[in-house]
Amino acid sequence: MLSERQRMILSAIIDDYVRSAEPIGSRSISKRGDVGFSPATIRNEMSDLEDMGFLEQPHTSAGRIPSHKGYRYYVDHLLQHGTLQPHEVDAMKMVFAQRIQEMEDVIQHVSGVLSNLTNYTSIVLGPEVFSTTLKHLQIVPLTDTTMVAIIVTNTGHVENKTVTIPEGISMLEIEKVVNLLNTRLKNVPLLQFKSKLYNEISAELSKYVSGYQELVSVVESVLHNDEKDRVFLSGTTNMLIQPEFKDVDKVKSILDLFEEVPTMIKLFTPSSEGIEVKIGTENSIEAINNCSLITASYSIGDTPLGTIGILGPTRMEYGRVINLLNHVSKHLEVVLGRWYGK
Q: Which HAMAP family is this protein grouped with (predicted)?
């Protein structure tokens, strides 16, 4: 689609724009030692690249910036995969060299280091977020007005929450709800729990319990806590330091998204193994249509365990982020392989 000269100029523009966050002009590109074309030639090629949709020209500037299409072409055809910097390798070595007793601590440390190294937002979905299923639900009355809702998973994890008994609902009705949920939702992955609870079980519950909606909300609130404990976010305010996110409303919609745990899990769950890059409007959620999301899955053998992701502006250091995620995912597989004895 593009000539060798156009490919070189597009790559140079994106590299310079990632570093400067300022529109790039033909003169600045001509001064690069690796280009070797006159400003007039570069200007003509930039005009053609704009016509083809690879570049955009902000109204206030004579320079160009990459479009989402330009970034996609860059990632697919022009990206140079270099090596990690020594300080990046050292930071990762420190994480995996620590004698950490809990798997969750390993994942939390990885998430923090990634956000610090990239200045973007990182998220790590732990292994249990995909494979954990419901083993048993129990509700225990404490007083006339309070009860404890308990969820036990197939991994032995127990989540409990003290809640108020909905007004007008008897313990007999509560027992009916619990028995039905244990029958219909046993061995259902927790990621599917909420959708099944509302889409498949609610209609059946309405036949037996008048105030079933309140009880469903109670059960769902316990599940929400369980999900949140398995999602590790770091650097959530890093968007604030990116020049393209000076618009407070734009940033607020992204920060609000970080609070929606089920949505974040769905967003960061890749559709394929390995590295996946979604640029701008390729992301299904409008709040991040001006962002890029790079994810890497990690597994043991044929068993997928989790996902590491980086969310940042489309003006992202794609090569560096991909190298970091490759490095981290491979080390996580080694560490978790030892953890699970495989």
A: HrcA
